[in-house]
Amino acid sequence: MGEEDIIKKVFLLSMLKKEEGESLSQVLIGLVNTGMFDKKEGRKVMKELIDEQYIVNEELSMKGVIIAKNAEIEFTLE
Questions:
Q1: Residue 31 and residue 42: Cα distance in Å, rounded?
Q2: CA 20 to chain centre
Q3: Is 32 helix (H, G, I), strand (E, B) or coil?
Q4: b/e string for 11-22 if b means 16 or more Cβ within 10 A?
Q5: Residue 60 in contact with residue 16, Cβ under 8 Å?
Q6: What are the residues whose beta carbons fall under 8 Å from the beta carbon of 39, sequence distance 6 or more?
Q7: Is 77 exposed, middle or buried (0-12, 13-18, 19+ CB in 10 A)?
Q8: CA distance 35 to 53
Q9: How far is the C-alpha of 42 from the C-alpha of 30, rounded, in Å?
Q10: Counting CB atoms within 10 angstroms of each CB, which of 1, 34, 46, 62 has the fewest?
């Protein structure tokens, strides 16, 4: 798994865990603030996720939910 795949999974997981009413832009800014990536790279990742239909209308698609839930399991420490 490459770095870009991990970043996409973290972005999708952040979307899954976002607060009610929190926008896609707010999720992006939150990840930028953690140092996950800079704003330019974050926008690129966000655009790719939208283009690949993991995110539709600022919400996770079913495909996005599945990847995010798998990422949650994958990133959980036992």
A1: 8
A2: 16
A3: helix
A4: bbbbbbebeeee
A5: yes
A6: 28, 29, 32
A7: exposed
A8: 25
A9: 10
A10: 1
User: How many residues in total does the chain contain?
Assistant: 78
Q: Which amino acid is at 68?
A: A
At residue 2, the 3 state secondary structure works out as coil
Instruction: Domain of residue 49: give its range.
Output: 3-75
d(CA 70, CA 58): 20
Question: pTM of the full predicted structure?
Answer: 0.91
User: What is the full DSSP assignment across the chain?
Assistant: --HHHHHHHHHHHHHHTPPTT--HHHHHHHHHHHTSS-HHHHHHHHHHHHHTTSEETTEE-HHHHHHHHHHHHHH---
Report the number of distinct structural domains present in the chain.
Answer: 1
Query: What gap in Å lies between CA 74 and CA 27, rounded to an integer?
Result: 21
